Amino acid sequence: MYTKILIANRGEIACRVAATARRMGINTVAVYSEVDADAKHVAVCDEAILLGPAPAKESYLRGDKIIKAALATGAQAIHPGYGFLSENADFADACVKAGLVFIGPPPSAMRSMGSKSAAKALMGKANVPLVPGYHGDQQDAIFLQAEADKIGYPVLLKASAGGGGKGMRIVEHSADFKSALTSCQREAINSFGDDKILIEKYLRRPRHIELQVFADKHGNCIYLFERDCSVQRRHQKVLEEAPAPEMTQQRRKAMGDAAVAAAQAVSYVGAGTVEFIVEESINGIDGAFYFMEMNTRLQVEHPVTEMITGLDLVEWQLRVAFGEPLAKTQDELTINGHAIEARIYAENPENGFLPSIGRLQHLHIPDAVEFESGSDPQAMPAAVRIDSGVRPSDTISPFYDPMIAKLIVWGADRGVALARMSQALSEYEIVGLVNNVDFLKRLVESQPFAGAVLDTGLIERHHDVLFPPIKAASLHALALAVAFLLDTERAQMSSNDPWTQASGWRMNMVMQRELIYSDTLKNHVLAVHYLQDGWSIGCRGVSSLLKLITSDGGKLTVSLGDDIVCGTVVRDGDIFHVFSCGTHTVLTYTDPLAHAGQVEAETGRLTAPMPGKIVAVLVDKGAMVEKGAPLLIMEAMKMEHTIAAPADGMVDELLYSVGDQVMEGAPLLSFTVG
Length: 674
Fold this sequence. Notes:
Blueprint: E1 4-7, H1 11-23, E2 27-33, H2 40-44, E3 47-52, H3 63-73, E4 77-79, H4 89-97, E5 101-102, H5 107-114, H6 116-125, E6 133-134, H7 141-151, E7 155-159, E8 168-171, H8 177-192, E9 197-201, E10 207-215, E11 221-228, E12 232-233, E13 236-237, E14 239-242, H9 249-265, E15 270-278, E16 289-295, H10 302-309, H11 313-322, E17 338-345, E18 347-348, E19 354-355, E20 358-359, E21 362-364, E22 384-388, E23 395-396, E24 403-411, H12 414-426, E25 429-431, H13 437-445, H14 447-450, H15 458-461, H16 463-466, H17 475-491, E26 505-506, E27 509-510, E28 512-518, E29 523-531, E30 534-539, E31 542-552, E32 555-560, E33 563-572, E34 575-580, E35 583-590, E36 605-607, E37 612-617, E38 624-625, E39 630-636, E40 639-644, E41 649-654, E42 661-662, E43 667-673
Parallel strand pairs: 1-2, 1-4, 2-3, 4-5
Antiparallel strand pairs: 6-9, 7-8, 7-9, 10-11, 10-15, 12-13, 14-17, 15-16, 17-24, 18-19, 20-23, 21-25, 22-24, 26-27, 28-29, 28-35, 29-30, 30-31, 31-32, 32-33, 33-34, 34-35, 36-43, 37-39, 37-42, 38-41, 39-40, 41-43
Helix pairs in contact: 4-5, 12-13
């Protein structure tokens, strides 16, 4: 076996490959761009080589630099992961010429499957079912429209060299064909440098089901069952699961045999995925399935296959590349349970799934393993697994895919797996950038997905369910935010000065204050009364007793009236992130001290919004000041707050001196506007 390999990738797949290599006693070399110098994949490998600046074309797509790094470090083979150079036949050729093993299929197989039209021609000869369409070289617009008319509308235009949803258009009517073709060709040439287009019959409610295949150098080829990847947005996968729901043994074997035939048609070696589009079943009768494309690499969603088979597909890749035969025959493979994968992205589902960038200021994940494999496929796998290339405080940059992690769950059946996925998503906490966790939870719990009513248009069809109207913050979320704030203030207080105690003690009176939290819909004004063993909070015309039961960092348990509420609160300046009951509530806190001086300008008085001490007087009597000028500084709850001028004007009189204690509502100075 190899003693050292170079991993020509980054992020979670580089970490995933390194984990298997470490378990097998193989040393690893990472490559990285300047922006990835402190990335997780660099830290988990034994060595690391800088490739160049952040843009992929100057770093991770520089095959010459990658090969040079492999040779310089003594690596014997290169694992390309997926994306970047993983399906680049020229790079695979260059590895071989340099005396390195490319851990992937032969370049000839990659070239055969790299062109959608050429691949479909090969599949037709191998008797693999094809979607009715035109895949030839004739690209005249009039000819193509005639072919589309012959196929019958709707049709799907696809860039022959495309992928990732680029260069695709659905055409409903013949009159729309010309403009759609022009647009599709323009996007294809810009994305892939090739404007060749193929045409296929468009299936209105298809499922996307793919078969994991594996072949060795000894002529053996098997399929490791199927994955359902129907849930997509913009032709990109969101959720994947294995096995496919409602898959009959007869259908599984038919699709598996077709996938093996596809791989054998191009003399395939290694891990690959044959993707099929499947018509909906009607009255219990399976719909037809058609070859769509073959991905000549490991897939992002390979963990669900590992979870139901107990196999390590990366280990299989390494062993096959080294020349070993496949470890199992088709008859020895079995399915154990059900697995679901959710792709957690830094993206905004409410804004067309646009990617987000930023720093992971807070990241809490459910209890899980990063990777676990076993030799016994009947052994119970880990219930929750997370494959990730980032850690708390890492940054999601604009240069690469905005994936944060892959969350994979296993259950004895689909119902158990669904429940575990919902629970795991409830426990995911991310602060610092917009993400899709809440959307994924709604999707997993939605009736269509839970009921396995799957097709590639599920998200668009059920948009209203998956994107419900925004709701105002719940009283439970507000209670957690209040308890966190008051508990934090109490921890910062001096234990000797009764005037600064956060217990609420005041001579001959009960301390009262007003807290204001805002969400995207409204302001929430909470009247807080300090009590001996908690607080009374009034909101929306209802008063409730709030008690803090436990507090561990930001993890809180409180009682609100008769309710027990648990959650986590993360504060980022004036922004409070509240995670509770599977929801993430974002609240903006309006600090009355920080904004003191912005009200009551018309009265000529500035009053203390809270009890505290005067620690600095910054102006003299008679001073002319501009709006916003600092006038004096109060200390309350061991935090200093500046009282500012509400407008241009003159200080008529100072009513307190440094060191004086003031009560809430006390006039601090007289002020004349103008």
